[in-house]
Design brief:
This protein is mainly α. It is 72% helix and 0% strand. It is built from eight helices and no strands. The longest helix is centred in the N-terminal third of the chain and has 37 residues.
């Protein structure tokens, strides 16, 4: 799958979430408000915030997995012996080293390995993407949005882990947040695409 297609998949999910948020807001602000929504605004805001961050994390995992799959395929296609790479990268390779293997190098990364290191937190994302050869700090849009994303992710973590409320967040705030998330995710897509065009 192309990186742009991955972005568009999550863009579509976030735009659908925006539609749900708009409908929720309309039900609360209606002349005759929907009691389920108007009596439980905090619950719905928290749910939508959590979903927004969940989509971000899933996107980050998917784009990183696609990138690492391409790296592994390229490495395998040029038939580099595993032992050569191991010898050049490891320290003090011994003749009976259990990591020596007469095969072509292919270093697949599982989704589980990525999910353990990738987070919605931009600073953890920067570190994880650095390991797969992507410098997210090189993108100005990423730089512009990372602090806002960080504050939203921290809020989400406090909701999940400490049952904090979301009384300081409105439906309108959620809609603006999603726009920031889309811009942030687009910056990641642009950066990963540019690295893969080399």
């Amino acid at each position: 799958m192309e990186f742009k297609e991955l972005y568009e998949k999550y863009e579509d999910l976030l735009n659908k979430l925006k539609e749900i948020i708009i409908q929720s807001q309309q039900r609360v602000l209606a002349e005759d408000p929907d009691e389920i929504f108007s009596n439980n605004v905090n619950f719905f805001v928290k749910s939508y915030l959590i979903n927004t961050c969940t989509y971000l994390e899933a996107y980050l995992q998917d784009i990183a997995l696609e990138h690492t799959s391409r790296i592994s395929s390229r490495l395998k296609s040029i038939s580099v012996p595993h032992n050569f790479l191991y010898w050049r990268l490891a320290k003090d390779v011994k003749d009976k080293d259990k990591n020596l293997s007469f095969e072509i190098a292919e270093y697949k990364v599982s989704k589980k390995e990525l999910s353990d290191s990738i987070s919605g937190n931009p600073y953890k994302t920067i570190k994880a993407f650095r390991l797969i050869g992507i410098d997210l700090n090189s993108n100005e849009k990423f730089q512009k949005n990372k602090d806002v994303i960080s504050s939203i992710v921290i809020k989400r973590n406090n909701i999940i882990h400490h049952n904090d409320d979301a009384s300081d967040i409105s439906f309108s705030d959620l809609l603006l947040n999603i726009d920031v998330f889309l811009d942030y995710m687009a910056s990641i897509e642009e950066t990963v695409t540019s690295v893969n065009e080399i």
